[in-house]
Amino acid sequence: MKKIFAVVLALAMVACCFASCGKEQGNSYTANNTEYFIGATGPLTGGASSYGISVQKGATLAIEEINAAGGLNGVNFKFDMKDDKAEPADAASGYDMLYEAGMQISLGSVTSGACASFAEKSKNDNVFFITPSASAANVIENANAFRVCFGDPDQGVLAAQEFVDKYENVGVIYDTSDPYSSGIFDAFKAEMDNLGASFKVQTFDAENKKDFSTQVEALKDCDVIFLPIYYTEAGLIAKAAVAKGSDALIFGCDGLDGVAGQIDDTVTNTIKYITPFDVNSDAAATASFVKAFKEKYGETPDQFAADGYDAVKVIFEAMKAAGVNDVKIDPSTLADKVIAAITSSSFKYNGATGEMTWDASGACTKVPQIVTIEK
Amino acid sequence: MGKITSNVKNEFKLKYLINYCLVLVLLLVGMVMMFTGGLKMSFARLLTQIGFSIILAVSLNLVVGFLGELSLGHAGFMCIGAYIGGFCANALSNYIGSKFLVLLITMIIGGVIASVFGFVIGLPSLRLKGDYLAIVTLAFGEIVRNIFKNQKAFGGAMGLSTGPIQYDTRNNMSLYIITFVIALIMLFVTQNLIRSKHGRAITAIRDNEIAAKAMGINVTFYKLLAFIVAAFFAGVAGVIYAHYTTPVSYTFFSYNYSIEILVMVVLGGMGNITGSIIAATLISCVNFFLQSRLSGDLAALRYLIYALVLIFIIIFGNAPALRPFKEKYGISALSEKIKKLFKKKKPFDPAAVKEDEGSWDRIPTKIDMDAILSTDINPEISGEQENADKKND
Amino acid sequence: MITLIDGLSLGSIYALIALGYTMVYGIAKMLNFAHGDIIMVGAYAIYVAMSFANPNPVIALISSIIVCTLLGVFVEKFAYKPLRGASPLAVLITAIGVSYFLQSVAQIVFGSQPKPVSGWKLPKIEFLNQFGITTGAVVTLIAGILIMVALTLFINITRTGSAMLAVSEDKGAAKLMGINVNKIITITFAIGSALASFASMFYLLQIPNAEPTLGAMPGIKAFTAAVIGGIGSIPGAMLGGMVLGVIEKICLSIEVISPYTTAIEFSLLILILLVKPTGFLGRTTKEKV
Questions:
Q1: Fewest beta carbons within 10 Å, which of A224, A333, B82, B196?
Q2: Each residue of A224-254: pLDDT tens digit?
């Protein structure tokens, strides 16, 4: 009895497959596009979803602004982000879905691991992507890959240089389960060793990232605690530091942006972080982005949102500079044009995260600022 | 009585053939689409995913359904296979040009190493029962990925990059073919194991360990055997995964994934291989369609819908209160009707069939004969037996 | 020394969660994988109550208890009750379904950004603070022990408690003795969920962030703790939680092995179970043919 059910089901499935997949044949997936299609994958569910959702919000805002201003030569843009749960396998599947839905250009993936998978896939098809926030070094090693944020190694080196003469006791807490965090840490450690400075290390990982009393206790005597991690845990560490009576300076990288929303007035430690994006900045581009974001979503944007916003705007500007005017343009041709445009010395983009230029490596050059939160 | 045995044999054969057919159908779907040019990359990936999900579900079923030990660490074996296999493949691809050969060699390496760990994890099962064993297997899975996470040689937190050995490109999508062939081999091994005397020993241990021991069955050997075979195929599935995704990230192999495999087994029915195949296909497809349809702002609904589907299927499939309802309108009732239609056409002697049914009905046994033989047992009786089993537990 | 105290304070959170696990397991004989997510809902209930004007921790706790209890009973009625008498694995899978469901609802309602819960300030105890002991840790520890004692008394003294014991011993016989088994199981869930709301409050005291995935990892850790202690045993859950918390903190405090904390924790778990197959305080049952 079960067998027959099974056979019926199998047959039904076969029928479904043919019905759903028989329709679209041929390899030109962009032939039916009426808008320029920007695709991306990011974690929209699960533990990392706040990053993906922020990028999604920023990118959507940028698309709306571009379309309201008439698009590119009157052609609108559309943006679609597939959920990848920060998982490489899902990012690769998401990439295929987007490519087959007519994606022409992309924001890659939000997180580093997933973006490495996305990069591998997009290399074969030569799809241009500029990732808002995947900062690991190997993400942009292919010619078609660019990014908006800082790379991990740069930040680690920068932090080490910042500390070396100013502070005696340096402590680090980093996340061994996160590519972003361990990427910065590795560069930081190398630079510190290089400069002949010593520091204490404490770690945590995805399974133990709630209670930081031990780590803070071990670094109680440090003048500065370096946190190459994300703001959620940094907020908890700041609170743990208060509870433990440590008044060390908390110093972080761009992942710490957003920490202001995670701490309350009980936190007395000074928090500093390297970031290209400061919500309270007076720069016109940043201020107008923050204002528009607050109006649309009723919340303060974080760096992920700013990066997502900038990435879309950069794509738009680069396409404009490249003189693209065919809505059905295939991704590979578009990629060659956009790469040529974005790496040309005259291309500059002044966005919410500052003024940026790119070279062929795909890395973004912009001026880091150090934001200070003091109580 | 001679007739009964022959009938049982036929039932066995048919039951097992169906499973081969199911996998072959999936394979053919892909092949036909490939030759007509309609096979998209995303669908080829889905097929591969279905393939290794089937391998995982059926091999886990061997432990959970046939041996009767709850394992929550199947993803751990897969993790070992994926990391070791990926690592070896990266190294081998420098010396061997053929990707296919690399895949085959690493499959064996990954599978064997995973089965060594299967042996290690099988050992506690000799001493621990039920939920305690379940937590040990869960712990095993978490230990494995924690260790791989901290190895710089395996890529650390970023995961092991397996870019050079990625199998599929848009012009050549054949990983799913290999996966399904492996699935067929796995079915062949598992099903022959189950129908052999070793398989009967394994099910005997499930039904009553002490009685099995008393009958002279080497419980230690058979428990370990089941764990080793299951771990081997999970390792092989892991190697396929390494050729399917880069980087191989430890995050994928969390207990959540072990549980997803378990869901496939439970949905399909414990000790029911056909069920596992269908459930693995179904869950992979549901995941795929939810990911492709629910993007952007709607993505938050993905797990909501998944959860509701899961709860609904389980309640519909298992709730005692729904049993009369199911008997009237459910799938088994439907298939019963279809079967009746078939029976009329068959030129069999109806008297002989009835006689068989009658004698099977009267065998008093605790074993769920329905699942094992899938002969026509009156559903009411099998239901009562299930209840009796619960009470005895 | 301080590591030990930190471990105990973390362990007391695990213990509180494990109490709920073990209670439901002991009586209903099911692994309620959604328990961690009920804690998450409780944490959001506190977050909402605390975000009103004039936040009052007592009102927040009470509202969280009400929300959790109702949710627990509701989940039991709609997801688990239809499966009474079905395979325990089917119930396990349903619990996982409920867990996914609650997580995605929380994400849809509150967003995935962690919500910092603040507004209550515990008075600093200077004497203890010198040694690096936080007030939250002390309060959690005391509350954990109090709740454990209360629970043990409840089960051993009241009529409902003895009915629960009877149900856990033998459902069929309990039914024959005139005990309403369904009602008892519902009450068990209600109590287990109320415990979850206490757990969420003490969790927030030490880790002041409410997020959709809040319950997942502590849930697994607490489950582990319950198993170490002998699942089904109330003092065992307490003990298991403490042991797990201390082990975790000791591992984290040693730099070389700290990345391997999870591996060591779980390896110890396996060792403990190999030596004592039913945990520290679990009962061994004779098996019959």
A1: B196
A2: 999 999 988 898 998 888 878 888 899 999 8
Q: Give the model's pLDDT for residue B1.
A: 42
Among A282, A284, A276, which residue's Cα sits nearest to residue A302?
A: A276
Q: Looking at the whole model, is its pTM more than 0.95? A: no
Contact check, Cβ <8 Å, A245/C136: no
Residue B139 inside a domain? The answer is yes
Contact A45 B43 (CB under 8 A): no
ipTM field? 0.89
- The predicted pLDDT at position B360 comes to 42
* Chain-chain contact of C249 with A214 (C-beta, under 8 angstroms): yes
Rounded to an integer, the average pLDDT of B7-11 is: 58
- Provide the percentage of residues in chain A whose pLDDT is more than 70: 93
Can you name the CATH fold of C2-275?
ABC transporter involved in vitamin B12 uptake, BtuC (1.10.3470)
Query: Which subunits count as partners of chain A given 3+ CB pairs below 8 Å?
Result: B, C
Which chain B residue has its CA at the smallest distance from C110's CA? B300
> Is B349 within the bounds of a domain?
no
On whether any CB of chain A is under 8 Å from the CB of B99, the answer is no
What percent of chain A lies above the pLDDT cut of 90? 52
Does B247 contact A at CB distance below 8 Å?
yes
Quick check: A20 pLDDT over 60? no
Multiple choice CATH, A31-149+282-367, 3.90.960.10, 3.40.50.1000, 3.30.1120.10, 3.40.50.2300: 3.40.50.2300
Domain CATH code at residue B100:
1.10.3470
Residues of chain A with CATH 3.40.50.2300: 31-149+282-367, 152-275
Mention every residue, 6+ apart, whose C-beta is less than 8 A from residue B128: B136, C273, C274, C277
Q: What is the pLDDT of residue B363?
A: 41
The CATH code that applies to domain A152-275 is 3.40.50.2300
Residues 36 to 55 of B: which have CB under 8 A from any A CB?
36-43, 45-46, 49
**B167's tokens:** 């199998």
